[in-house]
Amino acid sequence: MTVGLFIPCYVNQFYPQAAIATLQLLRKVGVEVVYPSKQTCCGQPMANSGFEHLTQECNDLFLENFSKFDYIVAPSASCVLHVKQHLHSATDPAEADRVRSNVYELVEFLTDVLKVENLRARFPHKVGIHQSCHGLRGLYLAQMSELNALPFSKPVHLLNMVEGLELVTLDRPDECCGFGGTFCVAEEAVSVKMGKDRVTDHTKNGAEYITSVDLSCLMHLEGILHRNKSAIKAVHIAEILNSTL
Amino acid sequence: MEKGMKDHAALAEAFINDEERVDWHDGALWWIRQKRDIASKQIPEWEDLRETASRIKNNVLSNLHDYLLQFEANATLNGIKVHWAADAEEHNAIVYSILKDKDIKQMVKSKSMLTEECHLNEYLIERGVDVINSDLGEYIQQLDNEPPSHIVLPCIHKRKEEIGEIFHEHLGTEKGVSDPTTLTRFARRHLRDVFITRRAALTGVNFAVAETGEYVVCTNEGNADMGAHLSEVQIASMGIEKIIPKKAHLGVFLRLLARSATGQPITIYSSHFKKPREGQEMHLILVDLGRSRQLGRVDFRDSLKCIKCGACMNTCPVYRKSGGLSYHNTIAGPIGAILAPNLDMKKHADLPFASTLCGSCSNVCPVKINIHDQLYQWRQVIVREGYAANTKVLGMKAMAWTLSSPTSYSTLGKAGRWVLNNIPFAVNNKFNPWYKQRDMPDGPKESFDAWYAKNNSQDSEKD
Fold first, then answer.
1. CATH number at residue B224
2. Residue B400 and residue A37: Cβ atoms within 8 Å?
3. If contacts are CB pairs under 8 Å, which of residues 30-89 in chain A contact chain B?
4. B176 lies in a domain?
5. What is the pLDDT of residues B21-52, one digit of tens each?
6. Do B434 and A188 touch (CB under 8 A)?
């Protein structure tokens, strides 16, 4: 099994440490990982803004980079969901279909495909989980509070394997942070208010770190934390799961 | 957007300026969302009920024509006069002609978002007919000359002190009185006089049953019943999508409606109206107003399954933080944002973008409308039809060009990180909406690309 590592554009540029943690974590659990170096972006920023018709070249590039892999794994639920729902090919629809069904967000790959039960990681801190909406309701990484259904959480399942880590309970466990792609600038006032309220929920419940499967949410929350000189840090879940004993 | 008109982002920003109000608004609606969660989780078959309701509505939308004719035939047999209206103007003209025939100059109304969509009150007032909204929240909004901000809780954005002020100004209550019970009692006394004196009453319709030709009106205040029972002319206005095939289906919808709306097991009054009592005239107006056009839009037809419970508004974080009036449309929130562009795409081009696509709306929806997917689809249509701002079109084209080429992407990425590291003021300024209340991410020295190129061989050897 060879995994193609898909590192979304903004993670590549702004959060290399999360990408490195993802790569090292996958290798640690025994996976052969290859990073195709000609990748850029999944096309989501354009598509969510109504410009899906401009994404064909991104789609083609994605297929060119990732067609040959058994699995494609990325540390970003949002980008994975976009590929799952919208990757199309004019020339080879069957291949696009195959790639769409083989792309995984890191946490779901670890729990569903590799069925990891032991991580040998240590992170002795109080951590709040920010459920990314695309991870929660799009990829169904955890049970959403809207449904009358049994609770489960793939991120919690993994975080429970981390020594010393204490999860904090939030007042609104699955509320959106307000990032929303271009929404964060087009609707700046609403976006920031939503972000501030998410941060407050973590603060008042005693979190030292906010983690998530999506760096885009974390980038937004981190921007608010920094501005307000908060001591709370935002950290991608890969970095926690890859932390050393 | 029309020139001079404020869009959702600007109206929301104005609402958010009063942060204390936003927190209270957000909290009040979240409290209702939590009541809805508790109520829905007490019924083991909740998800099956949603699925059943969704399927009944799918059937309705696929056979709308037949069910409407069946309803018309049965309602007519029952003695109800059935009218058809293609648009708001026709609807309003029908109401006016019914009143004019009887020389009625005063009417009492129960809650009907459809008549709000039609701007019926303004139409009738211009023609010398006095109309009073009898739902308490709507009544307050009417006194304050503002449209409802929520389809179930019309004045949820107002604080009790503000309502006290409105009552003082319009109804002569003592200044400074803001106790809800006192104010409600005062309004009730006032509305009782209205009910007793009005010869005509108009109600909305929650469900109309094709099989029996009857319709059901749900209220918590009993105001629809008070108006209808005391009037000599009773008018009901309904959107054509409100039809359901059989009386047996009512149980499914009544169980879902109140629980989704407010967390109650059922609305206090779920009144069935079937035939006029002796000496009374009963009219029912079937209104299209864009419904059949929406039915013809494949990606958006499901929006007509809506039973107007408001659950999507209560759960929507954008709605909770921005207030219903920021949607500048009769139906606000996520469902409004997919109904509005059908009515006027240019005027409402901003609404499908007033969402983070978090998906909570689709999952609370009792009839399983894929609301957030439809918001995504509307964005594509609005851009395709040319309603996106030119600057946005250019920006997106530039972005698509950059991201289509690994070389240009990598060059630009490097440049971006260099700017963040070396001349942060180039991005940290008032022209950058991100920076206004948030810091930019730190620009790391190297991208993952660069790190991988340098370290990958060593990294592999280490493993």
1. 3.40.50.10420
2. no
3. 35, 37-41, 43, 45-55, 57-58, 61
4. no
5. 999 999 999 999 999 999 999 999 999 999 99
6. yes
Inter-chain CB proximity B356 and A183 less than 8 Å: yes
User: What is the domain extent for residue B101?
Assistant: 58-146+199-289
Looking at per-residue pLDDT, the higher value among B4 and B136 belongs to: B136
ipTM of the modeled complex: 0.97
- Which 111-150 residues of chain A touch chain B by CB within 8 A? 133-134, 136-138, 144-149
The conformation of residue B325, written as its DSSP 8-state character, comes to G
Using only the alpha carbons of chain B, give its radius of gyration. Answer: 26
Mean of pLDDT over chain B: 94
A196 close to A224: Cβ distance less than 8 angstroms:
yes
Residue B463 lies in a domain: no
Interface check for B407 against chain A (CB to CB < 8 A): the answer is no
Residue type, A105: E
Averaged confidence pLDDT in chain A: 96
Angle at B261 between CA B259 and CA B264, to 5 degrees: 40
Contact B404, B443 (CB under 8 A): no
| Residues of chain A contacting residue B407, judged by C-beta atoms under 8 Å apart | none
Q: Is the same domain home to B2 and B88? A: no
Domain membership flag for residue B164? no
Shortest CA gap A33–chain B (Å): 10
E strand or H helix that includes residue A98: helix A93-102
| Cα B443 to Cα A141, A223, A227, B448, distances in angstroms | 30, 13, 16, 12
pLDDT at B197 over 50: yes
B397 → closest Cβ in A12, A54, A179: A54
What are the chain A neighbours of B400 within 8 Å (beta carbons)?
43, 46, 51, 54-55, 57-58
> What is the residue whose two structure tokens read 């499901």?
B302
Question: For residue range B118-177, what is the model confidence (pLDDT) as tens digits?
Answer: 999 999 999 999 999 999 999 999 999 999 999 999 999 999 999 999 999 999 999 999
The whole-angstrom separation of Cα A117 and Cα A112 is 11
Domain ranges in chain A? 2-113, 126-242
Which of the four pLDDT bands, split at 50, 70 and 90, describes residue B411? confident
Q: Does B59 touch chain A (CB under 8 A)?
A: no
Q: Which residue, of B329, B357, B388, is where some domain finishes? A: B388
- Asked if the Cβ–Cβ distance from B437 to A16 is below 8 Å, we say no
